[in-house]
Amino acid sequence: MSSTSGLSSCCISGHIHDGIPTGVVEKIGGLDVYVAKPEDGSQSKTILFITDVFGFAVPNARLLADDYARAGFYVYVPDFHQGDSFPSSLLQNVAPLEPEKRTGLQAASDTEYTLLYTIPWLGQHSDAVVRPLMDNVVVSNHPSFTTEPEFLNIAKPTQINVGTNDIFLSNALIAQIKTDMAQKTHVPYEMNVFEGAVHGFANRGDLTNARQKAIKEEAFVYAIRWLNKYLA
């Protein structure tokens, strides 16, 4: 099992969600990929779902992908960790995606729309993993290891969902990012701030806790609205 050395407790903690994933695992571009399909099988709205440090095999990521599929999206959840989830080195040193893997993922959809849904790590890893695959729109839930300049490079419609108690994103940085993004009038953006929410609230909160469950569901609704808005 991968080492968790160097990761904070909030980054490697959380709750496993109940449920049985309904998608399938396919091999695409040399990567194992969990695929969740909408009822009509249409790929006209496609999401590339980048997981947190726990990877693509945990139920939480797959169940959330299934939720998006039920909302009409065709969802790919690649095993970018390639079987070695949540080592600290993954968060600090992400190598650029190999061309054959990148091409395979881009070619998997038969539509011009390839969307990106990131769970936590938008910031430092955008050049290595995110930007080569990004096409239309971004949703980022509780990004980590992020600095202000990285948000200045955003060029696609971007929604960011963060909590006021997130150890990786201070309230001062949240306020500064809001100010910076507001000045980028040519790039649509939205930042939703959830009072009291901690890192990981959108995908590994305690669903027996009414407040945590409500925050997770609210972030999901915001994401659906944002994605649909830029696919109209």
From TrEMBL:
Domain Dienelactone hydrolase intervals: 31-87, 139-231
InterPro entries on file: AB_hydrolase_fold, Dienelactn_hydro
GO molecular function term, any single one: hydrolase activity
UniProt-recorded name of the protein: Dienelactone hydrolase domain-containing protein
Highest classification ranks of the organism: Eukaryota, Fungi, Dikarya, Basidiomycota, Agaricomycotina
